[in-house]
Amino acid sequence: MSEQKIPKRLTTALVNSLTAGVVPRVGLEHVAVGRRAEVEAILRDMENIAEGGAAFKFITGRYGSGKSFLLQTIRNYAMDRDFVVADADLSPERRFVGTKGQGLATYRELMMHLSTRTRPDGGALESILQKWIASIQQEAMKELGLRPGDPALNLEVEQRIFAITAEMQSLVHGFDFARVLSIYWNGYKLADDNQKQAALRWLRGEFPTKTEAKRELNVGVIIDDENWYEYIKLWAEFTSRLGYKGLLLFIDEAVNLYKITNSVSRQSNYEKLLTMFNDTMQGKAANLGIFIGGTPQFVEDERRGLFSYEALRSRLIEGRYANQGYMNYTGPILKLDMLSHEEILILLQKLTQIHGQHFGYTPALTNEELIAFMQTAVGRLGADQLLTPREVIRDFMDLLHTLHQNPEVSFAKLVGERTVQPADADPDEVSDFLSEFEL
């Protein structure tokens, strides 16, 4: 396997994240394996979004199957293709609807993680607005021959900004959104940092009361738990007008909605999900993609999952042909299968090379030893758990760290020369399963 030189900052992020069992936000392309069909399906959705369409997908898989990894991989692909992206993990404090502002908390989290190709680590809100103003200034100077500092330039920029915001005023909540954008422009023009920061606070949903917003911005509406999703649609519209391909939301840990004990609260969140689903599928939203990661139980449980809400169940349930075992990557649910043995082997090879690069040594593990590691994992965990990437990666990173820090210890001593057969497994089935690893 040819070795690719990876910058130290990326190997650091990869080694630290994978050792801890969490998904790194950078460098994913160096460890990505498999999922080609799933990625291609989402890239097709992104093409539709760039053309003014919308998309909504649930990405489901068991714990550790790679949902978060796929979401982060697509997030990075999207930024490279000039989308604005935002991501958030749901939790008891962050939902779609809540009596204690949990919906607004999700919006704030998304705004905090708003990212672009030039600002991949979040906090891109102000840079997006500055790019907007700068592009209008450049267009005006190019078309009218104006120079920086020319009084006519500010007047022309202001007229163009008002023309753009006027087009948005016909949208739901568009008038107030456009007004705050104009206030930001005025603060930018006058170099008034207080005015700019007040506008940014409003756009981030940080004003606690309408009274405070009225006092500081003369705007009588704030972004709150009830209307935050409408402003997401406005952001999608606005970013597309700035030349971006659209806005993509990556929302993970949706199983936290399934865990809501109060049935009324849980159903309210599912109702908001239904609204988002319908908007994207029926053409009511433009240049917007929503990708939600959750467990199969979160979707399919008919007592507490999405299937307990009939309007969602009827939209998400598989058709008769998919039920026959055929894959359908264009539907609203993208189910992640376990990685194949070959893909796991390639992943271990990549991790070995990254570990060697990071710590400055030449890896000595052979393919036979990597296969022996997988065989041992089968024996320890059972065939149904072997290919859960998170468990395999954490164990393998632990193995690499131990071998590197204890050079007197051999691979054979750590892993053992024989695999351990799980006590509750059929010996013949295990033998057949392990034989698939042979080179």
What does this structure look like?
With 439 residues, this protein is an alpha/beta fold. Helix content is 55%, strand content 7%. The chain is built from 19 helices and five strands. It has helices spanning 8-20, 36-50, 67-80, 102-112, 125-144, 151-168, 174-190, 193-203, 210-217, 228-241, 255-258, 263-281, 296-300, 310-316, 341-359, 367-381, 389-405, 411-415, 427-435, and strands at 54-60, 84-89, 247-252, 288-294, 333-335. It is globular and about 75 Å long. The chain starts with 7 loop residues before the first helix and ends with a helix. Residues 418-434 have low confidence and may be disordered.
Q: What is the topological layout?
A:
Blueprint: H1 8-20, H2 36-50, E1 54-60, H3 67-80, E2 84-89, H4 102-112, H5 125-144, H6 151-168, H7 174-190, H8 193-203, H9 210-217, H10 228-241, E3 247-252, H11 255-258, H12 263-281, E4 288-294, H13 296-300, H14 310-316, E5 333-335, H15 341-359, H16 367-381, H17 389-405, H18 411-415, H19 427-435
Parallel strand pairs: 1-4, 1-5, 2-3, 3-4
Helix pairs in contact: 1-15, 1-17, 5-6, 6-7, 7-8, 15-16, 15-17
Strand content: 5-15%
User: How many individual helices?
Assistant: 19
Query: Roughly what is the average pLDDT, rounded to an integer?
Result: 85
- Order of helices and strands, N to C? HHEHEHHHHHHHEHHEHHEHHHHH
Helix content estimate:
40-55%
- Sheet with most strands: strand arrangement: 2-3-4-1-5
Structural class: alpha/beta
Using the alpha-carbon principal axes, give the shape. globular
User: How far is the N terminus from the C terminus?
Assistant: 15 Å
